[in-house]
Design goal:
35 helices; alpha/beta; 11-stranded mixed β-sheet; globular; 784 residues; two-stranded antiparallel ribbon; 49% helix
Length: 784
């Protein structure tokens, strides 16, 4: 089948409904899944075998809907309807009855009936909708198990392609949290507990998807979440429940069948989302499969398994996979093609391949969810509120980290964005939690609250941020970051208002936010430098360099002798970016003292020096034990190959070894780990900080993410490759400093290397704005 032929209508996913233990709608559930949040509880009445004294009573971990949403006393068909009906309503919201009457409905429950008739109960619950008497072409559920949802989608595609219907609604509900199911899983020793860490977290969910031909969707101007491009169907000859171990022949075959329908034969797949659930057999099967299905290329493909958030939802887990994929592809850093994989215990294997649909208005979607209410769960909102500041604080280390690249930063920022979505979906409840955290919180809490306040445009919320505590420099970092996180079109009204304010604190926030977005505030910047408020003056001096305001170079020079340390440094730093060679003397003077800016000063100064001058000043720093670390860092920034032998010697010093290895990489481009130049952690090195409150050494290790170089291996490498470098000629990551090389480093380097490349690029082009490597990763990906 050739899905790419123009005469074949693509299959569009135009509606999604989802209910999980994380949320009562697709947006709220998916915000939690993308955030990595789980809502697990302990089930205290599970009998677990294995104790030498016989059967013991202990707890297993489960992911059940909260009691106030669906009582644990609701079982069988009643529970199935309680979960599935809201998902159907969400999926069909806004559709006229005439369309639904002509749709094929395929709704399945894998929950043991126990009581009541599932179909009749569902029809009664959905009496306002034209739910049919029977669904069409039902496959045998017993033979497919957790693959039933994907199989129903494949059958529905056939109906759509043959003209049997214009729309198809496919849904499934399942719960492994029912007592009979838990008992069975416990008997098989498959439940995750203290005695079985590799077991299943039993979960429950319901999901519904609306399918139609693209032509039909376009005709009614429907939003398209994603397209289904291909699928594969197979069976595993040796399922996990058998006596012969699985070698993944069935799963591999299903992938190959699906990929054969794609133009790139699987090369275009960016991500796989699978129903892995913590069990060893499933992990082994995927390990076998992953090496067989993709073309041999350098493309990194992420594996995602939502069961680590929702728990194993049985047959309904397929709907979780599909909804997760559709959300990721409509996100701010979307994968364009995703493969979904489901596997049943008894051998069925099904694959779906999805392609990105239309971009959707996330703000409108969240507003719509807020109006519906009751779609978010309090315990999950609290986790969003806790996670966002934590991730923001961690991000502050990642933006300059030697082990984090642009794409790693972008995915981290996606997690922040997902938590922010979760708080926004909560409406007033989300705001109240964020507001409460401001009382004793940190800058990360101000970031969360500021984002919500600015997104809402609520003046009362914004005023809560701008109290005496919120405008001090340390806390206002969160407010500035929130303005930088927003698209400029949304941040501009608030930035403009702050720039026009007479308060130095608010003016500083406005100037900083403008600089983050690379927007020149014009005359306001020059006026701010004249302000007597030193925090405002320092931030304004820094903005001059960031924005390339070469016309303000004389103003910078006027501040070379300012009494405030920060003002002196940023005047010299910005002047260096603007091409003033006279700034070098001031930078060297600052480095000779005890300034907090010594490291940045040394790196900036060495970038302005070459040859003899570099080695002379380096010798001065290296001769003093107090500045020896600065000499190591400076050597890497200077880029002079003549300093490499000295750096190799410093690798024998435990305190300097790792930072010397990083400096070696900055000059030569050799990667300590990738090129096999790493060694063991020295015996005398203590990885754990001293927890003695009287000991000043409790600070985090500044080199914790750097590898340990082996001086002998590095020396051998240098003997083999050193002749290709010219002493006295600056190198950056193994090559001469050119615009093309710097652009490549901005795309593929670590954050430490990227920030260095941005500085080098600015020095090559005085007067051009400095590329902001701290900006949201998803925004940087679009501009590099």
């Amino acid at each position: 089948m050739e899905n790419q032929k123009t005469n074949i209508d693509r299959i569009a996913i135009t509606g999604i409904g989802l209910v999980t233990s994380l949320g009562l709608s697709a947006p709220s559930s998916l915000a939690a899944i993308r955030s990595g949040i789980a809502n697990f509880i302990e089930h205290e009445t599970v009998l677990v075998n294995g104790n030498e004294y016989g059967t013991e009573l202990c707890g297993a971990i489960i992911a059940r809907l909260p009691e106030q949403v669906v009582s644990r006393r609701v079982h069988g068909a009643d529970r199935a309807v309680a979960l599935l009906a809201p998902a159907i309503r969400e999926c069909t919201d806004g559709l006229p009855h005439s369309m639904l009457e002509n749709a094929h409905w395929r709704m399945d429950s894998s929950i043991e009936s126990g009581n009541g008739n599932f179909t009749e109960n569902l029809r009664t619950e959905l009496r306002a909708l034209p739910f049919p008497a029977q669904r069409a072409n039902a496959p045998a559920a017993s033979a497919l198990g957790r693959c039933l949802f994907f199989e129903n989608i494949i059958q529905a595609i056939t109906d759509l392609r043959t003209g049997a219907c214009q729309m198809a609604l496919v849904g499934c509900v399942d719960s492994l949290c029912e007592s009979s199911t838990l008992d069975k899983l416990a008997e098989e020793d498959r439940l995750k507990s203290g005695t079985n860490p590799e077991g299943i977290v039993a979960g429950e969910a319901a999901g519904v998807v609306l399918l139609e031909l693209e032509s039909h969707a376009r005709k009614r101007n429907a939003a398209i979440h994603a397209y289904i491009n291909a699928w594969g169907q197979s069976a595993e000859p040796n399922p996990w429940t058998g006596t012969t171990p699985s070698t993944a022949k069935g799963l591999t075959s299903a992938f190959h069948e699906a990929f054969a329908q794609l133009p790139g034969k699987g090369e275009e797949i960016d991500m796989v989302i699978a129903d892995l659930n913590g069990e060893r057999a499933r992990a082994h099967e995927w390990a076998f499969t992953s090496g067989r299905i993709f073309p041999v290329d350098a493309k990194a493909r992420e594996l995602m398994h939502p069961a680590d958030c929702t728990g194993d939802c049985g047959a309904a887990l397929g709907s979780v996979l599909l909804a997760t994929a559709a959300k990721l592809m409509s996100g701010i850093l979307p994968p364009l093609n995703i493969a979904l994989a489901t596997s049943d215990d008894d051998g069925a294997r099904r694959i779906l391949c999805l392609e990105k649909g239309d971009d959707r208005d996330q703000d409108a979607l969240i507003l719509n969810e807020q109006q519906k209410r009751l779609t978010v769960l309090p315990v999950v909102i609290e986790q969003h509120n806790d996670e966002t500041p934590f991730l923001w604080l961690r991000r502050n280390r990642l933006v300059t980290a030697p082990h984090c690249g642009l794409h790693e930063l972008a995915w981290h920022d996606q997690r922040i964005e997902a938590n922010l979505d979760g708080l926004r979906l909560a409406g007033d409840a989300g705001w109240e939690l964020s507001k409460e955290a401001l009382r004793h919180g940190n800058a990360g809490d101000y970031f969360s609250a500021a984002f919500l306040a600015f997104k809402s445009g609520d003046e009362e919320r914004i005023s809560c941020l701008l109290d005496k505590r919120g405008t001090v420099p340390e806390m206002s970092k969160g407010i500035i970051s929130a303005l930088g996180w927003l698209p400029y079109s949304q941040a501009e009204p608030f930035i403009t208002k702050f720039l026009a304010d007479s308060s130095p604190a608010l003016l500083r926030i406005g100037i900083a936010a403008s600089a983050i977005h690379g927007i020149d505030p014009g005359k306001i910047l020059k006026d701010a430098i004249r302000n007597e408020d030193q925090a405002l003056k320092a931030r304004s001096l820094k903005a001059v360099g960031e924005l390339g305001r070469i016309d303000l170079l004389p103003v910078l020079v006027d501040n070379y002798s300012h009494e405030d340390e920060a003002c002196r440094f940023f005047a010299a730093w910005s002047a260096a970016l603007l091409g003033d060679r006279n700034a070098l003397a001031l930078l060297k003077s600052i480095a000779a003292g005890s300034s907090l800016y010594r490291e940045e000063t040394v790196k900036t100064a060495f970038r302005m020096m070459e040859g003899h001058d570099t080695r002379t000043w380096h010798a001065v720093l290296a001769s003093n034990p107090v500045s020896l670390r600065l000499a190591v860092i400076g050597a890497g920034t200077a880029g002079d190959p003549a300093l490499v032998p000295w750096l190799i010697e410093q690798m024998r010093n435990t305190e300097l070894a790792r930072v010397a290895g990083e400096a070696f990489t900055m000059i030569t481009g050799a990667d300590i780990v990738r090129d096999g130049l790493n060694g063991d952690v020295p015996y005398e090195f203590d990885e754990d900080p001293d927890d003695d409150p009287e000991d000043d050494s409790v600070a985090m290790d500044p080199d914790e993410n750097l590898p340990w170089p082996d001086p002998g291996l590095v020396s051998n490498w240098w003997q083999q490759h050193g002749n290709s470098f010219d002493n006295g000629r600056r190198c950056f990551l193994g090559k001469s400093i050119t615009a093309d090389h710097l652009r490549q480093a901005l795309y593929s380097g670590s954050q430490y290397q990227r920030s260095s490349a941005a500085m080098e690029s600015a020095l090559l082009n005085p007067g051009l704005p400095l590329f902001n490597t701290r900006a949201p990763g998803f925004r940087q990906v679009r501009t590099t």
